[in-house]
Specification:
The structure holds two protein chains of two kinds. By secondary structure, chain A is mostly beta strands. Chain A is built from one helix and eleven strands. The longest helix of chain B has 29 residues. In chain B, strand 3, helix 2 and strand 4 form a beta-alpha-beta unit. Classes of the chains: A mainly beta, B alpha/beta. At the A-B interface, strand 3, strand 5, strand 6 and strand 9 of A face helix 2, helix 3 and strand 7 of B.
């Protein structure tokens, strides 16, 4: 193995290790706790979640989501009011205010992946591209937690059974 | 005793009676005694199929308690969450869970065919029954249980559904007798289900 290749491999391993411990950064934004829920067989949609902190002095907006595992990526808000569930895409995107933190979680905001090419399986990593109005585009990874999981599973990088 | 006095006593008696009545209703609601919910939702006739293709009518609801909820598989959050929570609750109930029938009724029969329901439900408690059918028959059960369900068309992307997210608890006649709310605490939900199946 030539040195540059070795160096590249080492660097990528290092960044993988760093990723597990530190938030993903793009511009003034820090993104952490990226996860998605495993989907029942036959489901064509999945929900993805994360926490985004804006350390900058100006607001930003999550405007786009794309993933190779799905035909469409959208940012949604889900609400239950008077016992009725409504779910709507956020047409203008999801605002991340200056100095603020926005959490996408079950029962609230979520990334909706539509037209899944295959069900999301527990333990999988799903690549996703997030686009912010100001900070630009960043490649990220949803770690897939079990169906019905209330939150992200603990670090799985040590190798799970499945 | 004058007529005015009689009327006055009668009115006070009526007030007292109403207070006792209200107090009783409040007590029953808070203490969990008696019916979980006094309701006029009795259900009604429907003709649907389960995920195996077998016909299911309102007769299937007779003679045992049921939990019934409405949703659709094109739903990334609340529907799988509810199915997952119900699966967990079945586990909490232990052997008593067999006394309860659980129905997941689609509000989106166009996309949720019998095959889709079968595949989807395979991820949850195998005792669950998924119900689908023609648009007309789904509309009948929606109306019978006064469920809210509305199709939301969009300029881009597939349509969505707004729908009632509450789990209906039905008595042995298929009439509404209580509810489980979204994000109800597990202990409360288990207590309600135990009361429903008469083992609490």
């Amino acid at each position: 193995m030539r040195i540059p290749v070795l160096a590249a491999v080492a660097a990528s391993l290092l960044s993988a290790v760093a990723f597990a411990a530190e938030p993903l950064k793009v511009g003034d934004l820090e993104i952490e706790g990226l996860w998605a829920r495993a989907t029942p067989p036959g489901a064509v949609v999945a929900g993805g979640f994360m926490t985004i902190t804006n350390t900058g002095a100006s607001g930003d907006t999550l405007v786009g989501v794309a993933s190779p595992v799905a035909g469409i990526g959208e940012v949604h808000e889900m609400k239950v009011e008077d016992g009725v569930m409504t779910m709507r895409p956020l047409d203008g995107g999801l605002p991340i205010p200056a100095g603020g933190t926005v959490t996408l979680k079950p029962g609230g905001y979520h990334i909706m992946l539509v037209d899944l090419k295959a069900p999301l399986k527990k333990g999988e990593d799903v690549p996703v591209t997030l686009t912010f109005e100001k900070a630009g585009t960043v490649e990220a990874t949803f770690h897939v937690a079990p169906i019905g999981a209330p939150g992200p599973v603990a670090d799985h990088s040590m190798g799970e059974g499945e | 005793m004058t007529v005015v006095r009689i009327v006055r006593y009668a009115l006070w008696a009526a007030v007292a009676l109403m207070l006792v009545g209200l107090g009783t209703v409040y007590y029953l609601r808070e203490s969990g005694e008696g019916p979980l919910l006094a309701s006029s939702i009795k259900g009604g006739p429907f003709n649907l199929v389960d995920q195996t293709g077998s016909p299911v009518t309102e007769a299937a609801l007779k003679g045992h308690p049921s939990a019934m909820f409405f949703g659709y598989t094109f739903c990334p959050d609340i529907c799988p969450t509810t199915l997952y929570d119900m699966t967990e609750l079945m586990g909490e109930l232990g052997p008593d869970a067999d006394k309860l029938k659980v129905y997941f009724v689609t509000v989106d029969p166009e996309r949720d065919t019998q095959a889709v329901m079968a595949e989807y439900l395979s991820a949850f408690d195998p005792r669950f029954t998924g119900l689908t059918g023609s648009r007309e028959e789904i509309d009948r059960i929606i109306a019978a249980y006064r469920v809210y369900a509305r199709k939301v068309e969009r300029d881009e992307g597939p349509y969505l559904m707004d729908h009632t997210a509450t789990v209906y608890l039905l008595d042995g006649e298929g009439a509404l007798t209580g509810t489980l709310d979204y994000h109800e605490a597990t202990e409360t939900a288990v207590a309600k289900l135990r009361r429903l199946i008469g083992s609490g």
